[in-house]
Write a structure and sequence with these properties.
Length: 224
């Protein structure tokens, strides 16, 4: 929940953070001069989150159905939860739970913070505040982790095969002979060592193709 946010772009960026982490829905309390077009620019495709965003007039209305409310602050606060602790608490609740962020200038007031079930803060080094959307991203990521979300594995790289190594060897041979690097009487001795080095590096097919492209460019340059 964003309480009286001043920037429509921050609302859009917060929507993007939620779309990336799946941490929950977006509620906004009394946004000041909300401009959906500006929000969409920073949402970067998180249109579904913006479309489903709930806008309400008061904080009491926003948290009315919640079984727990955790509020954020940039001020040092005794007993404040860390982001992982806050995320674990919210994720363990049996019903709707809210994480409330204050506005970009003053944050939540002490009076508002006293209404929270718990208070949380993001530890910082030199400056005690973050951009609103950055803070949403930090907590969104922690909520995602606390739920045991499994990130999709990266697509496996296709390894270079022997056909590519043979092409690299053939193109390298002509170029290195022309450059005087290989002994014309026994060019294969050093050439085999170089190709063996490339093979031991276990490059992906794309990486080996980049080497081939570089060799092709060198050939064109030499011909000129």
């Amino acid at each position: 929940m964003l309480h009286r946010p001043r920037s429509s772009q921050n609302i859009g960026a917060a929507a993007r953070a939620l779309a990336n982490t799946g941490a929950g829905s977006l509620w906004v309390v009394e946004p000041l001069g909300f401009d959906r077009g500006q929000a969409a620019k920073l949402a970067a495709g998180a249109d579904a989150v913006l479309e489903s965003m709930r806008v309400v007039r008061t904080l009491a209305e926003a948290v009315g159905d919640c079984v727990d409310v955790v509020m954020t602050t940039g001020r040092p606060t005794a007993g404040a939860l860390s982001p992982p602790e806050a995320a674990a608490r919210l994720s363990s609740r049996p019903g709707p739970a809210a994480l409330v962020f204050g506005d970009e200038v003053r944050g939540l007031t002490n009076r508002e913070l006293r209404q929270a079930g718990a208070v949380t803060t993001i530890p910082t080094v030199f400056k005690s505040s973050l951009n609103l959307a950055q803070a949403v991203m930090v907590y969104g990521y922690e909520v995602m982790k606390s739920r045991g979300a499994v990130l999709p594995p990266a697509a496996p790289e296709v390894p270079a095969d022997e056909n590519i190594f043979s092409l690299v060897r053939d193109r390298s041979r002509a170029l290195l002979l022309a450059a005087g690097f290989l002994n014309p009487q026994q060019p294969d001795v050093i050439l085999d060592e170089l190709v063996s080095l490339l093979r031991r590096a276990r490059p992906s097919r794309r990486e080996a193709e980049l080497v081939l492209a570089a060799l092709a460019q060198l050939e064109r340059t030499r011909i000129r």
